[in-house]
Q: What sequence folds into this?
């Protein structure tokens, strides 16, 4: 499979993705799946400016990404598929029926979220969404950068993965 | 845009403790550390970081936001936060010579930001290799 990472990261395009994962995996393409960004030329220009010219960046809605996943997975190069939140990734899982592993790369602090890891903060609703994702057959682990050890979802939710 | 006191003021938004370290160095060298407001992205989600940048600009009266990685979350947040205020410049790739130029010279407008950016670029060099004694 050429999609090396299905990642949930509220910062979307940033240093950990472009440099932290992009360089060691030799990532050739990133697919940013977000209905709002897919409809905004200004936001697309903003994110495109953060990606080196040799790295391809595509913007897709959940619907269009689901349709293109088989072709993306068949590509010879390595790629990353990004969503900003759990809900969008779950919609992509449901629409595509192809995703078996999900990386929690960054769900950061905001009001109502409790700390689980240094880079994972969750509301009670989000905890339930992740449990449901795992019960649906998806392996969920948390790992911000390749140099760190992946933390299984059970340890994330128990707060024992630090 | 100028501040009420006409002095240069900047927000520095960066990863980890980098911004605070830069402000510390600016203060040590120039005594003008108070011209800079340090902001870390640590632990903040994208929306919270954007709000923090917007608040720091307003509270500090900043006319420039310096960020570290061009591809980083701080740059994305700074550009979103300044979308409606084009008089506030965003400068990426911040370094110490760049900041010293900004805080020590007159001007708070975009030209001052461009001058500081050029100073920062010019400061990057590989020192000549030492000549070994025969």
A:
């Amino acid at each position: 499979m050429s999609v090396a990472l299905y990642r949930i990261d509220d910062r979307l395009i940033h240093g950990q993705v472009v440099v932290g994962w992009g360089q060691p995996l030799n990532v050739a393409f990133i697919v940013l799946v977000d209905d709002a960004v897919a409809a905004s030329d200004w936001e697309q220009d903003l994110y495109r400016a953060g990606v080196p010219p040799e790295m391809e960046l595509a913007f897709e809605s959940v619907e269009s990404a689901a349709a293109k996943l088989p072709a993306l997975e068949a590509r010879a190069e390595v790629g990353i598929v990004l969503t900003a939140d759990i809900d969008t990734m779950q919609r992509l899982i449901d629409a595509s029926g192809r995703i078996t592993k999900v990386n929690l790369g960054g769900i950061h602090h905001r009001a109502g979220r409790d700390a689980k890891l240094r880079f994972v903060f969750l509301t009670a609703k989000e905890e339930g969404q992740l449990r449901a994702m795992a019960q649906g057959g998806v392996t969920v682990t948390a790992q911000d950068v390749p140099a760190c050890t992946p933390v299984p979802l059970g340890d994330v939710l128990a707060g024992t993965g630090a | 845009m100028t501040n009420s006191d006409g002095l240069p003021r900047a927000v520095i938004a960066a990863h980890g403790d980098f911004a605070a370290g830069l402000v510390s160095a600016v203060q040590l060298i120039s005594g003008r550390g108070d011209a800079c407001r340090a902001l870390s992205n640590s632990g903040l989600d994208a929306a919270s970081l954007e709000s923090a940048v917007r608040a720091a600009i307003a509270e500090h009266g900043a006319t420039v936001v310096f960020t570290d990685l061009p591809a980083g979350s701080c740059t994305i947040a700074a550009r979103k936060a300044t979308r409606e205020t084009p008089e506030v410049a965003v400068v990426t790739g911040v370094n110490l010579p760049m900041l010293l130029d900004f805080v020590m010279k007159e001007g708070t407008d975009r030209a001052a930001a461009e001058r500081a950016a050029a100073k920062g670029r010019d400061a990057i060099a590989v020192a000549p290799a030492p000549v070994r004694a025969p």
